[in-house]
Design brief:
Elements lengths: L11 H17 L6 H16 L8 H19 L9 E6 L5 H13 L4 E6 L8 H8 L15 H6 L2 E5 L12 E4 L10 H21 L14
Parallel strand pairs: 1-2, 1-3, 3-4
Helix pairs in contact: 1-2, 1-3, 2-3, 4-7, 5-7
Length: 225
């Protein structure tokens, strides 16, 4: 069975899962976006992962999670959801190491007081296992995270865009605050080599939260402790 759009082939099970996902999204965005917009974002999100997903059964779930993020961003861009929370986007090349650790720390320390997303210019197939292990040492679980691309609405919705090595491939929108964090790429490194990168990211995230006047919800890690 194929979908109504021409890009990716969808099995019967995946089609059923996508219909269920569309129903959930329609409920959650009731009064914000119509069914057509939701379906379009869901299926285009599916296409983003269909070409390189290692486990096809997870495709509808990944598509739903990414579509939800994109719809939340679009609602902010269009002024349909205004909560005054600072919004930050972390970008790197593969969205598998640095940007995922930054997102993990940001959500850990900011809680519900701010919003953050992450993306990559060339998304990898999975999050770096060494990054997952290094973050677990801080009690932060990024094992459920997944590499994903950036999209226009997500970049446009962000107040601050933090880039980490994606260079000219990173999206530039006039009038937006950009900041480049020069950090070693953890790709191919073991946990011991990733720890210094992780600690520098933690320090920078805490500095960013202070700049944005976002109260830290948890006690920062004490390296001397």
């Amino acid at each position: 069975m194929t979908s109504d759009h021409p890009h990716a082939t969808i099995t019967l099970d995946q089609s059923v899962a996508l219909k269920t996902a569309a129903t959930r999204l329609a409920r959650d965005f009731d009064g914000v976006f119509n069914a057509e917009t939701i379906e379009r974002f869901l299926h285009s999100s599916y296409d983003q992962f269909a070409g390189h997903a290692t486990i096809a059964n997870f495709l509808p779930l990944l598509a739903e999670r990414f579509a939800r993020e994109r719809l939340q961003a679009l609602a902010r861009v269009e002024g349909l959801h205004v909560d005054g929370k600072p919004t930050v986007l972390f970008l790197c090349v593969h969205n598998a190491g640095r940007s995922q650790m930054a997102l993990g720390f940001f959500e850990h320390y900011a809680g519900e007081a701010a919003v953050a997303w992450s993306g990559g210019s060339e998304p990898g197939e999975q999050v770096n296992p060494a990054a997952i292990a290094a973050m677990a040492e801080r009690g932060i679980d990024i094992a459920r995270a997944y590499p994903k691309p950036w999209t226009d609405e997500i970049v446009r919705a962000a107040d601050v865009v933090i880039t980490m090595g994606c260079g000219d491939a990173c999206p530039i929108f006039p009038g937006k605050r950009y900041e480049e964090w020069v950090l070693d790429d953890p790709a191919g490194k073991d946990v011991a080599a990733v720890r210094p990168v992780r600690d520098e990211i933690e320090r920078r995230v805490l500095d960013l939260l202070a700049e944005l006047q976002v109260p830290v919800q948890r006690q920062p890690h004490d390296p001397a402790g």
